[in-house]
């Protein structure tokens, strides 16, 4: 059937995207069970732990409401729970509301606090994450202390509850650092390793790997064994009591290494132009797993990732052929690997993979009711050149629904997705939000502009000092290529993104004329405001992306869309959470006011109770429907959602 692009009827609704999507986090084996971290959009985005059988049958929820298993360390959190072996096996977790650490026996539902309450104006001043098994009766973790100048340590928390009322019962193990991550205790408990970094660096710019002797009274002075000002070290893991594996990008690519403590010798295991790690936005993120002292199971690739077995003695690498576009090893038991996986047919899942036969099956799925294959798009890896002759990577999703085609000689409208970060990456997977558009006859292109991860340090560094320039020019290059190849309608080109992606959206609308509509979700618009009014983790991120402040104040003013709204001439939709501390609502409000003053068609929707990113089911639905309605009204096609009020 031939219908105008954008107006195809689709069985994928915004409710399906929101209610049918269950965010998945980490997972682990426990006895004959699998414990999975899951989000609950219908409960305001609460995060809980769920027990599954290895057959994929859900058994019970382990952390009941109102507890919310979510850390705020470095603001983005991560690694907020761990099963700790003790007299009774217990789940240790950070609770989002008060950021206290709690303990609960598996199978019971009454958590008890292990750390004291410490708040100022309702904001917790002590935060904890990335728990690991400590000496008997204790757990080790990152401790973030915001009571004065922000500082982070590796700390030892007793499991007997004695620190719940007395902070002095928490032992500080590491020297103070602005940021720390990845605490790892050697198998014999005698050595402790971790990584640290200082302002103005981000962890993908520069980190240092520390090693120290660990004793009953704490640790001896540490030494730095890897890392540097132009080297990013990630994920140390002990192979045995002497050898410590880690990933470093000293060569220009994140590749695996091994450090031998006895000989103080470092050996590179793999020399490949491929990434064996990624950006550490959330603490506890891992990319490989120690299978045994002689082999690692590694996720690696360029863009998409594969699973490989790396031999720590010889440095050999054996690829394992699996039908996934992304894979992240999480645990191993007998011959079964527990992993986070992605594919174009099933989306994000927690899967079991037999390492002998490569048989695999899902334990938990992010998408509860998979859309029918007839409404799903395929993905194409798209590459073009920018004005400087450099390669730019993107993922192309053409309009697709079985039984429907556009009107003869009509080119489809396209929506340009711009990922956040900006040090992040768009990856190929079944994305219900993409299918929401493509099944209606709207194309999507997801751009990995210069500065994205997955393509080496040189590609990542292209954004240094050039945020708002390189990301925009690369995105424009992709669109010009699509238009030049007659894939997209030049009169109907949208662009949307959240956070740092929202910045690129606003910059693209301000400093280029390729786009005819734009949607900014909690997007950065004011660089000075961002430097002065954002959280500690990103407070000097702009120094590498733009320049030092206030020395480069003129450049900050020149780049920021908020100072050049008069150059925007196409319609804009602004979506913003009213409790956002990363990008405060004031930034979106100023843009909305300026658009109104100039008479530019726009809408500004403020979402109550949302922070940086929408987690509540009803708000996810409203944001998605509002976006489709916006494009329909601007691009002049009919759709099945209510119109929004445009000013």
Could you provide a short overview of the structure?
The protein has ten helices and 39 strands. The protein is α+β, with helices and mostly antiparallel strands.
Please characterize this protein's 3D structure.
The strands form 9 sheets. Strands 32-33-35-34-36-37-38-39 form an 8-stranded mixed β-sheet, with helices on both faces. Strands 15, 16, 17, 18 and 19 form a 5-stranded antiparallel β-sheet that branches. Strands 1-2-3-4 form a 4-stranded antiparallel β-sheet, with no helix packed on it. α4 (470-484) packs across α5 (500-511). The model has no long low-confidence stretch (mean pLDDT 94). The two termini are 36 Å apart. It contains 10 helices and 39 strands. It is of the alpha+beta class and 647 residues long. The longest helix has 19 residues, at 617-635. β36 (493-498), α5 and β37 form a beta-alpha-beta unit.
Write out key terms for the chains shown.
647 residues; alpha+beta; five-stranded antiparallel sheet; 15% helix; 35% strand; globular
List the helices and strands and how they pair.
Blueprint: H1 14-19, E1 24-30, E2 33-40, E3 46-53, E4 58-61, E5 81-84, E6 90-94, E7 101-105, E8 112-113, E9 119-120, E10 123-124, E11 126-133, E12 138-145, E13 151-158, E14 171-172, E15 179-185, E16 191-197, E17 208-215, E18 218-219, E19 223-227, E20 233-238, E21 243-248, E22 255-260, E23 265-268, E24 288-292, E25 295-302, E26 304-311, E27 317-320, E28 326-333, E29 336-343, E30 347-354, E31 360-365, E32 380-385, E33 391-397, E34 414-418, H2 432-438, E35 443-448, H3 457-461, H4 470-484, E36 493-498, H5 500-511, E37 517-521, H6 527-532, H7 541-545, H8 553-559, E38 572-577, H9 585-598, E39 602-607, H10 617-635
Parallel strand pairs: 34-35, 34-36, 36-37, 37-38, 38-39
Antiparallel strand pairs: 1-2, 2-3, 3-4, 5-6, 6-7, 7-8, 9-10, 11-12, 12-13, 13-14, 15-16, 16-17, 17-18, 17-19, 20-21, 21-22, 22-23, 24-25, 25-26, 26-27, 28-29, 29-30, 30-31, 32-33, 33-35
Helix pairs in contact: 4-5
